[in-house]
Amino acid sequence: MDFESVCVLGLGYIGLPTASTFATHGLQVIGVDVNQHVVSMLRDGEIHIQEPGLRALVQSAFESGNLRVTAEPEPADAFIIAVPTPILPDKRADLRHVTSAAESIVPHLRRGNLVVLESTSPPRTTVDRVAPILARSGLQAGADFHLCYSPERVLPGQILRELVENARVIGGVDRASGEAGRDLYAKFARGEIVLTDATTAEMVKLMENTARDVNIALANEFSRLASSLGVDVWEAIALANRHPRVQILRPGPGVGGHCISVDPWFLVEAAPQMASLIRQARQVNDDQPAYAVGLVERALGGLAGRRIAALGLAYKADVDDLRESPAIEVVRALVDAGAQVRVLEPFVPGFEIAGAVTASSLESVLADAEAVILLVDHAQFRQLQPAQVAERMPGRTAVDTRGVWDRLAWSEAGFRLHVLGMG
Ligand code: SAJ
After folding, report:
1. Which helix (H) or strand (E) holds 115?
2. Distance CA 364, CA 356 (A)
3. Which of 191, 113, 124, 104 is nearest to 152 (CA)?
4. What is the four-CA torsion angle of 249, 251, 255, 261, rounded to 10 degrees?
5. Which of 11, 86, 196, 306 is most buried, judging by how many CB atoms fall within 10 Å of its CB?
6. What is the mean pLDDT of the chain?
7. Is 91 in the active site?
8. How much is the pLDDT for 197?
9. Where are the beta strands (DSSP E) in 10-108?
């Protein structure tokens, strides 16, 4: 099947790179976002998210003349839904964006079109939720138009490369739908394209992120065990990972981002009585910020009134994404415990946390600090020279929740360095 035009609904971390990549590969692309601010920014030549290479890609997509952005869908050969699927406070999936995106396609859907859901979704969303909405057009998925689920699997920080190079799973509601999906993504995908059914493709995505969550939970639990047994978890993991069939992940202050800390709940929701390990892993990871706070408390011998410089708020290194960030939870807990906290997040400079002071430079975050704590291992923080830090702050306590600072160098600069997961 050939495609000349595609309408991409949702211009976030996935939709914007996807729309731009299709445009630079010759398709006519209509990028749709319900947020008028996003549409205006893009039309003004700005982008609303930071991702290496994205600005240049969006620019060349516009320069090609193939990309237009707007607030309403328009007729196209294919529609891609790439909207957020957050969780509600009770940990159930919030599918409002998916359903309203599907509803907005209905008036434009034509016989022979392809619709692809990319948003991470609970099992059976494509067949049980999206197909019935699209049927309001009078057309049936499979019989009159093609319908697929194809999960995005790109890693923030490496989205542009992984979008093109990763293997892509495409689950059609029938064989012809899967093949239509393959023909669409073959416009730019260099990784293998594998066809399956829609519900399997939804499960694949959830299983990938759940596997990572459970494995990080294991690393976090190891960090607590090692610490209480007087063992250095980092050394133990490095040695265990020399085993040819062992690959333990890294402990840290918790698991954030809108994917790994969210998606496992979709499986718990689907069958709570069968997902006890998955739920327990979520619990371990959700408890990890409190564990990191305990480490800071022990390092300082108390928190009330203590002056703390916190480095990093993003959910992981070298991204500007603050969603579900454990670093923010740590800072909030320190503030609640009465500490005087200054925070520095170079990727989101203006972000405020109630009760904490937002610093704009290394100098200002460190001034007066009794302790410096590393919450996010951004490259610029990983490479900090302890001697320079010592010149800028009066205290000599340092806490590393990411296991990246060189212990000898920090101790030679006069610091007592406390590392998460060490006895
Ligand atoms: N983290 C650890 N220890 C580790 C690895 C990660 O504590 O060893 C923490 C990070 O600091 C972060 C969180 O886990 O807070 C998640 O980071 P991540 O880099 O593991 O994953 P994401 O959320 O940025 O991207 C994941 C990826 N999924 C997998 O690797 C299986 C990506 O491929 C998906 O496309 C993305 O979720 C998504 O959109 O679902």
Report:
1. strand 114-117
2. 13
3. 191
4. 40
5. 11
6. 97
7. no
8. 98
9. 28-32, 67-70, 78-81
For residue 166, give both structure tokens: 């990763």
Six token digits for residue 292 = 């990191």
**Contact in structure between 213 and 260 (CB atoms under 8 Å):** yes
Residues near 23 by beta carbon (within 8 Å), at least 6 away in sequence: 29, 61, 62, 64, 66, 67
The pTM of this model reads 0.94
| HSE value, Cβ hemisphere, 13 Å, CA-based, for 163 | 24
Closest CA to 17 of 171, 120, 158: 158
Query: Residue 361 and residue 129: Cα distance in Å, rounded?
Result: 48
Candidates 85, 119, 120, 209: which one to mutate for ligand 1, based on the most atoms within 8 Å of Cβ?
209
Residue with tokens 């947020």: 35
Q: Which is the catalytic residue, given 7, 91, 187, 205?
A: 205
Give the tens place of pLDDT for each residue, 144-158: 999 999 999 999 999
Per DSSP, the residues of 225-265 read HHHHHT--HHHHHHHHTTSTT-------S---SSSTTTHHH
pLDDT at 50 over 90: no
Residue 67 tokens, joined: 């990309």
Q: Is 316 known to be catalytic? A: no
b/e for 20-50, b at 16 or more Cβ within 10 A?
bbbbbbebbbbbbbbeeebbebbeeeebebb
- Reduced to 3 states (helix: H, G, I; strand: E, B; else coil), residue 392 is helix
Asked if residues 309 and 345 have their Cβ atoms less than 8 Å apart, the reply is no
Structure tokens belonging to residue 73: 């869908």
SS3 state at 301: coil
Do residues 349 and 368 lie in contact, with contact meaning Cβ atoms separated by under 8 Å? Answer: no
pLDDT digits (tens, 9 = 90+) for 55-103: 999 999 999 999 999 999 999 999 999 999 999 999 999 999 999 999 9
Q: Is the pLDDT of residue 181 over 90?
A: yes
Pocket flag, ligand 1, residue 322 (CB < 6 Å): no
Query: CA 136 from chain center: how many Å?
Result: 33
3-state SS, residue 47: coil
Residue 104: how many CA atoms within 13 Å on its side-chain side? Answer: 22
